[in-house]
Amino acid sequence: MKKKKEKLEAEVQQYTKGSVIVQIIMTIAAALFIAPIFIIFNYSFKGKRELYLNNPLSLPEKLNFDNYIAAYKKLDLATTFTNTFIYTAISVLILAILCGTTAWAIARCRRKFFKFCYIYFIVGILIPYQALFLPIYMIGYRMHMTNTRFGIIFMYVATGISFGVFLMNSFMSTVPLELEEAARIDGCSVFRTYFSVVLPLLKPAMATLVIMQAFQIWNDYLLASLYVSKKQLKTLTVAIQSLFSAQSSDYTTAMAAIVISVLPIAILFLSLQKYFIKGMTVGAVKG
Amino acid sequence: MSRQYLALVLPGFIIFTIGLIIPLFMAVRYSFTSWDGMSPEKVFVGFQNYVELMKDSDFRDAWWFTLKFTIGNTIIQNVVALLFAIALDSGIKAQKIYRTILFVPCLISALVVGFVWLKMFSNVLPALNDFLGTNINFLLFGEKKTVLSGLLIANNWQWIGYWMLIYLAGLQSVPSDLYEAAKVDGAGAVKRFFNVTIPMLAPAITICVVGITTGSLKVYDLLVSSTKGGPGRASTSMIYQTYTTAINGRQYGYGCAMSVTLVIVLLLVALVQVKGLKSKEVQA
After folding, report:
1. Residues A158 and A249 in one domain
2. Mutual angle of helices A203-219 and A252-286, in 10-degree steps
3. ipTM associated with this complex
4. Contact B23 A132 (CB under 8 A)
5. What's the CATH code of the domain at A98?
6. How near does any CA of chain A get to the CA of B135, in Å?
7. pTM of the model
8. DSSP annotation of B174
9. Is residue B10 assigned to a domain?
10. Tens digits of per-residue pLDDT, A162-206?
């Protein structure tokens, strides 16, 4: 099957028959991939009764927003949404600033310490924070960072920085050195050179970084569940998990909660998609 | 001047050190103690925790599940993502729509993905069964034998589109004259695939293989909302096991020893993969 498919795809330019088959296969694949998302949307509008009586693929009898209202109340959305938004926005902003400057300095300064830094940061990609969640929780507890906004933002920055530096570093070769040298000759300091010459050229990279970090922080469960237990500091994902365990039979409310939680990230992705794809291309090719 | 560069690096360096490198050393240090997480003194016990890990059958089971999950993901995700990327790159219509549809699941939290597939397997698909009059067993999370395949479906649904995007980016950067040259030399489609496409994709393959492996070894969120490590203990991953031991069982020292084994495996696997894959990379 696999071989056959490859052959088909490679021969596409010669045989239009092949390209039709590929198109059909991909359409089926895409339909299967989108089915669960359709189910989420569909169920988020259904009433309890409809869960048991109707065909799961049938559309809801009428568009009712009861589930959304219930989810709003049960998730304590006003608080949890704001919290998650604050944690994500501030962490991503800090990461965007730090990763850019760090990666640029590492790429441009040839001293041994900066070479060491590159390897040092790579360690964080190879060891995801989940593997160290226990000591990460312990250090936070000891430094009185648990149950504070500062603490969780600090940890999101610390755990996201490796990937960001790695990503931004692979973009630095796309920034022409001549421009930087010209700026230097004109008397710009290192900081000025970065912020007025380099940074504007890193837009696609920044878009990639922002999306990648934003959806990881927004969706994070383990760190959020360890670091914040106070009600007024809870995140959306943690609230959703408690909703899941409370509402496992009447899951229409849970489905509405899912839609609410995914929407902001989906909007962010769709609005930055153009840059994001461009950014991924450079990142993947340079490795 | 290098002092100014240093000022740019230091903040990130310090935050990273406190947030990840010091915890790494803490894990090693506490793994040699019998600390319960509360008492003020931490009794040094040498390698006792590691010796006990060797005898702990729960620990072995957790590793066994994690490894099966990782190997399954690495193979399926790489192969399918690459096939999808080739399909989209072959010049089919509406490429962008397919790309977006396949990518979107990875924007959803793993916790939510777990819950959605729990409901898919336990409610939606069986209801479809009734409706269509078929009798397919969809309760994959209910049995020890099938729970792994259920989780693989959920995880692959979430991540295939992401890795496909990286392969697609790699494919689009392969210069087309390489294919032309191979064609002139009389290479068939299969030969072109293995002798041109695969070598040119090597950097992307390295990223994907290492990324999928580390991503699967750390599985936790997905399990919390779907199987809770069950049925029995059939889907308890390493991190899940560490969490139950340390946070619920109050054995911090022992839990740290578990974390250390995971870190060692992560580093070893990455080292072997990067070395093996880098040696096959060619420069364009």
Report:
1. yes
2. 150
3. 0.86
4. yes
5. 1.10.3720.10
6. 15
7. 0.87
8. S
9. no
10. 988 988 888 887 788 888 888 888 888 888 888 888 888 888 888
